[in-house]
Amino acid sequence: MNVPQAADHLRISKTSARKLVERQAIPAVRTWRLRRVRDDEPGETLRAMGNNT
Q: Which structural domain range is residue 44 located in?
């Protein structure tokens, strides 16, 4: 999924999701200009941060 989709999944703003990706809190792969996040990564990131959704 792309970063805006991950933001929707996490129920956070797109800007916050981009910042998490830049800080490498959410692992992402860059392909050309796009950043892709694995489908299972956002949920695991929330658990690691202590937020249960």
A: 3-49
